[in-house]
Write the structure tokens for this entry.
Amino acid sequence: MRLGIFFLKGFTNEDLRIVVKKLAYLQAFLYPEIMEELGVKRVIGLMSGTSCDSIDAALCEVHPDMSVKLIEGINYKYPHHIRSKLFQIFSENCTVKDLCMMNFAVGECFAKACNILISEHGKPDFISSHGQTVYHYPFDEKLDDISLKSTFQIGESSVIAKQTGCMTVSNFREADIACGGQGAPLVCFADEKWFKNALVQNIGGISNVTVISDNNLTFGFDNAPGNMIIDYCTNKYFGKPYDRDGEIAASGKVSESFLECLLQDEYYFKNPPKTTGREYFSPKYIENALKYAPEKPEDIIATVTALTAKAIALSYQRFINTDGIKEVIIGGGGAYNRELMRLLRFYLPKHLELKTHEDYGISNNFKEAMAFALLGYCTYYNIPNNLPSCTGAEKRTVMGKIVNCI
């Protein structure tokens, strides 16, 4: 776009100089994307997922072709009492005061994670933070004819910006919801840039898949509870935060009757686009399900691990045309669970080859943080970074809000 200048009768050279200066300022303010060509940016991507096990901080180089190179990543553990307070919020055992305080406290934790990387590598061009989701409500409910569809991520970006001295991009999901979408899944945008003709399956607290095919528009959805139920049961019965390498699950036996009972949940039959979270697969939900569980704790872990694997496989069967697709690429913490990977191989069609992100030089651990580095890069350059075919939004939009460090 070019902003024209009209020569009006009575204008002096000084008047013209002032007009040109103001128009240049207006152009820079309204259309920053034409004031700076795309360049390589160093970005710290921040992600803390549904499992809330740590803050993933990834220092990346983001390139104009949308490729992302990981320079270094760290997993910053939440302080014990902060993490406990987060789980109180997840269980809705909290006050508005708790939410207010934790928004700033989590922001400080994110800043500390960034400062570890900054101390070794210097300041990035900016930081891109997903935040910590504490509630996600993607449903078309209304009150007085006002939509209640919403999402809430904490980790105050002003705190991150001020404590690191870096411009910070945050609050991505809200813009997609404002455009009629569900605010998730968002990582599909990066998957589309990095992979071809594949099912890109993340297994974090929640499992979600991106379907990339030359034959159709990219689309994605949340397809299973991921590690969430496995982690809950491992903690409940064995006092451990997660089943390392799937060792407990491998020692047990899958209860087919309990598994089939779990798979009758209506979510698995709901058509995409769809998204879910801890709000649905809550501790109350899990405890109700455990009333029908087998007696041996190791059999319970084996069965809920099989639930994640089979729910993923069934979602492909029900909702995805796999013509021309030859591989499933696994990422997230589930990629390290050997028993889960074995069960996935068992339930998936044999023509689909099972790989991990590592096979493509992308960290299983830091893939989502890298994706948010890319999303933040697009925000910086005013490039639309949602995919309506994945989220259900009415249009493409630029997601993310920018907070300056000055």
